[in-house]
Write a structure and sequence with these properties.
single chain; 8-stranded mixed β-sheet; 6-stranded mixed β-sheet
């Protein structure tokens, strides 16, 4: 059964903005306005939903957030849904989304990361529709470093499109831009060098599979539920196997180790040909590093593990398409990910 890709966006198409998790506080509304104007400058019409309040940890009650997201995903006039960012508790939406209606509707692109993994990864697994794990709406104004693409490039790509991304080999050491003081920030601070790192041994990696994954702290809560059955997805859509990617947002190495162990025991990695691990600023502990946490939990898989991939909370962002076919190459002199939308 083929993965389903939403049709490419064209100028004049409508993009929905809603907050399935955290909304946008008043002091950051100007940054939101900057991001929306950037989307409109590409020729798209932006439709902003009601679930945007940023005064608490969620933008609205769960039923309202689920209804608004379902409505956007099933509205044939909305071609993509791009939340401002993630948050903490999008998990409360999952039993309230009308998955049958979403599955029956014409596919719609969904873009985001962090807590949006809680929604996007199940969306791909349950419906077979590709989703984009990458820079979110509030990050959209940043200029993309050479070698990488933006979500704009992906959602406008034709069926069968193939694109290769190479890491810029620089990233942000720590911190975030103050969007309240500088809402128009457009240049990433990439102030430290860094390459991809093979964790499980030495030697070159050249591996293929279909992409699936997301934020560890979010997905670990879905293990053992119908919303995170990667084995069923592999049987239906990826007999060639999966390239599973994970990234730690902020929890320390001991917590990440526990989460990954639980995900492995629940079968999340059963069809993995390799594991990609996002670069993280999450802390080590005196007895365990983040690298060691991955090896402790996932070493029994006996598949290649490549870390420091730009698919997490450390800028810049290398978008990965859940469901896309991907080839990853990592050698002493070359690192690249080639995705194909087929």
């Amino acid at each position: 059964m083929p993965v389903r890709y939403p049709r490419p966006l064209r100028p004049g198409d409508r993009i929905g903005v809603t907050s399935p998790s955290s909304g946008v506080p008043e002091e950051l509304r100007e940054r939101l306005a900057v991001a929306v104007r950037d989307v409109e400058a590409r020729g798209y019409e932006v439709v902003t939903g009601r679930c945007m309040d940023g005064s608490g940890h969620v933008s609205a009650p769960a039923a309202e957030r689920a209804a608004e997201l379902t409505a956007m995903l099933t509205d044939p006039g909305i071609r993509a849904v791009v939340p401002p960012w993630g948050g903490e508790t999008a998990i409360d939406l999952l039993p309230l989304i009308d998955w049958r209606a979403v599955r029956a509707a014409e596919p719609t692109w969904v873009v985001g990361y962090s807590d949006m993994s809680t929604v996007m990864t199940p969306l791909t697994l349950l419906t077979g529709v590709a989703t984009v794990h990458g820079n979110n709406l509030m990050d959209t104004p940043y200029r993309v470093p050479g070698g990488l693409v933006t979500w704009f490039d992906i959602v406008a790509a034709p069926p069968g499109h193939r694109f290769t991304q190479t890491p810029p080999e620089r990233h942000r050491a720590s911190g975030w831009d103050d969007w309240a003081e500088r809402p128009g920030s457009r240049t990433f601070t990439l102030d430290i060098p860094g390459r991809w790192t093979r964790l499980d041994g030495s030697g070159d990696v050249d591996i293929e599979g279909r992409l699936i994954g997301g934020c560890v702290e979010m997905l670990c809560n879905l293990t053992g539920t119908p919303y995170l059955d990667t084995s069923a997805f592999a049987r239906a859509h990826a007999p060639e196997g999966l390239l599973v990617y994970v990234e730690a947002a902020g929890d320390d190495a001991l917590a990440i180790c526990r989460y990954l162990h639980g995900m492995r025991l629940a079968g999340f990695f059963d069809a993995a040909n390799a594991v990609l691990v996002g670069r993280t600023a999450a802390p080590d502990t005196p007895s365990l590093t983040q690298y060691e946490a991955v090896l402790d939990a996932l070493g029994p898989l006996n598949v290649p593990s490549v870390a420091d991939v730009e698919c997490g909370h450390v800028p810049p962002y290398l978008p990965l398409v859940n469901g896309a076919r991907c080839r990853v190459v990592h050698t002493a002199t070359r690192s690249e990910a080639t995705q194909t939308l087929d």
